[in-house]
Amino acid sequence: MLLILVVAAFLLELVEISGYKSTTFQQLKQDGKFWPLAGTGRDVVKVRGLVDCGSICHSLRPACNSFNWFPGNLTCEMVNTVNAFLEDAPGAMAYVNASSVCYTSPPALENRTMYFSYGWNGSLPAPLLSEVSYDCPIFSRCPPLVPLKAKCIGPNTWQLLNVNVTPSCLANTQGYELSTEDGRMYKRYPGPMNRTEASRVCCQDGAILASDTSGITYSSIRIVAMDTTEAILQGATDEAEEGTWIYEDTSFLQVNNTPITSYNWWGTNSSLPAGQQQAPNGGRDKNCLSLLGEYWFDIPCSTELPFVCQYF
Ligand SMILES: *[C@@H]1O[C@H](CO)[C@@H](O)[C@H](O)[C@H]1NC(C)=O
Ligand SMILES: *[C@@H]1O[C@H](CO)[C@@H](O)[C@H](O)[C@H]1NC(C)=O
Ligand SMILES: *[C@@H]1O[C@H](CO)[C@@H](O)[C@H](O)[C@H]1NC(C)=O
Ligand SMILES: *[C@@H]1O[C@H](CO)[C@@H](O)[C@H](O)[C@H]1NC(C)=O
Ligand SMILES: *[C@@H]1O[C@H](CO)[C@@H](O)[C@H](O)[C@H]1NC(C)=O
Ligand SMILES: *[C@@H]1O[C@H](CO)[C@@H](O)[C@H](O)[C@H]1NC(C)=O
Question: Residues in domain C-type lectin (predicted)?
């Protein structure tokens, strides 16, 4: 009994259904509802209140382990949470069976940051089907395509998802050289690769594709890529919007082909006809960026070049 009281104190809002084998429901989200199993004619009823809504859900078990309550029109939608997902719905309140929640924490994984989802903010108990996704700390900029996740799939039961497809957070600094200019580490890869592939290679090291964003960065890049007659890729693209160059080093940016700082090294190509020599000159055909000598040239994103990774 004491345990039940302690547990109940954790819950934000509960619907207590008295009687034979009662079920306690926990509010998962205000202004959210479960979808898609709710909403069919059979599942929707008009009731007098929240407790009635919970009673009906309780009596339907296990077909109903959660419900959406709409106080505005006294409507109750019965849901089986399995295969349902939570969506934003103003005026709705999503409730789940509190007996099928996780009172235990999701596994804490070393060096990983947890992000909570499915209407859950991370405080226990975790509602059934709530999820935590794990990301690498700041030193790894590689966005996991399929994030490592844990999901509350039953009473105190966490299931780890995507374990085999998630890259590890371990940084690979093998072959990187420390720049005393900025304290960061750099490595030249001969490639040749296009920007997306080069970016992926850097990413897997826990690094980013380097860009010439300051005099210090330029000097650091030149520690590992000494040949100034060799064009290398930069970690920037204006693919999304012409002239807006987004850099992997998000402290730098160009708008209308103009850097946000005074650091501007767009080059001129004297091999081109007069009037077309000033870079950038490729428009939508050249959405990637190279560094040749001290100068920047826009290039097609299919261009394969050597590149430098920068480790934060
Ligand atoms: C998280 O949600 C619970 C209710 O589910 C609430 O009591 C608590 O204050 C919230 N915590 C944060 C940090 O928002
Ligand atoms: C609530 O969950 C408990 C534990 O999983 C289960 O025994 C019970 O039948 C569920 N109640 C409803 C209404 O789904
Ligand atoms: C009750 O109101 C909600 C919005 O507040 C709406 O989505 C739902 O369809 C309504 N249900 C009925 C039966 O009118
Ligand atoms: C966590 O990070 C430290 C320091 O980078 C490293 O030595 C350790 O192996 C990492 N642990 C895991 C499980 O990745
Ligand atoms: C300069 O223009 C010539 C002729 O189009 C081209 O072959 C060369 O790759 C260009 N150089 C740079 C750095 O873009
Ligand atoms: C970049 O290279 C990869 C691997 O060779 C290729 O699949 C992809 O289509 C290339 N991207 C562009 C824009 O050329």
Answer: 181-310
